[in-house]
Design goal:
The protein is an alpha+beta fold. The protein has two domains: 28 residues; 108 residues, Ribosomal protein S3 C-terminal domain. Helix content is 46%, strand content 19%. A three-stranded antiparallel beta sheet has the order 1-3-2. Helix 4 packs antiparallel against helix 5. The longest helix is centred in the first third of the chain and has 28 residues. The radius of gyration is 28 Å and the shape is elongated.
């Protein structure tokens, strides 16, 4: 008590407490930044993402050719149609890296509506985008197709 009365307070102790507090704040801040960057954002709008994927499909000549060969009169899994859907799925798998996302691609006539045959039971929101894919107008077999991409978050 004599030390307090004479004003000889030990300032080194307070300095160590302040240093320890600052170090703890820095460590917690770094951990929070790392954790927030690693968690996937499930609340983002995927419409732009879908449009970009459809643009990439349209720019890919081999995929565009496959899509124009798709026979809308046949089932999705029948013969050549199954191969075409498999090729599109493998292309999209390399682009859609988030494990919580599920997608479905549909090809139909340019004049009809593409829709999901079965609504996914584990989906809260479904995002979709579509694009018309065709050969050149001068091509003898001009038959444009509509490609629609559905994307949803696995719940």
């Amino acid at each position: 008590m004599v030390g307090f009365a004479k004003g000889k307070m030990n300032k080194n102790g307070w300095l160590r407490v302040a240093e320890a507090s600052i170090a703890i704040i820095i460590i917690i801040s770094v951990v929070l930044i790392i954790v927030s960057n690693r968690q996937p954002t499930k609340n983002q709008d995927f419409n732009t993402f879908l449009t970009i994927q459809l643009d990439e499909i349209a720019k890919n000549n081999s995929l565009r050719t496959l899509i124009t060969e798709y026979d809308v009169e046949k089932e999705e899994s029948e013969g050549r149609n199954g191969e075409i859907i498999t090729s599109l799925n493998s292309f999209l798998e390399s682009k859609i890296e988030q494990s919580f996302l599920t997608y479905k691609i549909k090809i139909c006539s340019a004049t009809e509506n593409c829709f999901l045959n079965e609504y996914p039971s584990n989906a809260k929101n479904i995002y979709s985008a579509e694009r018309i894919i065709s050969t050149t107008i001068e091509s003898p077999s001009y038959s444009p197709k509509k490609v629609k991409l559905f994307l949803w978050i696995e719940e």
